[in-house]
Amino acid sequence: MRIQSIAASGLFGSFNHELRFQADEPVTVMTGPNGVGKTTLLRMINALFNHLPSLGQFPFSKLAVHFDDGAYLVAERKRSAGPEKQHFRLSVSGCSAGGPPRAFEVDLQAEPRELGILASAAEEFLPDLDRVGPRQWLYRPTGEILSLSEVYERFGDELPGAGMEPSLKIPDWFRDITKATPVRLVDTERLTRPRSPRPASVRPARQVAGRTILRYSRELAQQAQKVLAEYGAVSQSLDRSFPARLVRNKAGSRTGVELRAQLDEVEKKRRQLVSVGLLAKDSDWGVGVPSLEDLDDSQRSVLGMYVEDAVGKMEVFKDLYARVVKLTTIANSRLLQKHLTAGRDGFVVASSDGSNLNLELLSSGEQHEIVLLYELLFCAEKDSLILIDEPELSLNVEWQEQFLGDLVEISKASGFQALLATHSPQIIGDRWDLTSQLSAPGPR
Question: How many of the other CB atoms lie within 10 Å of CB of 399?
Answer without folding.
Answer: 20
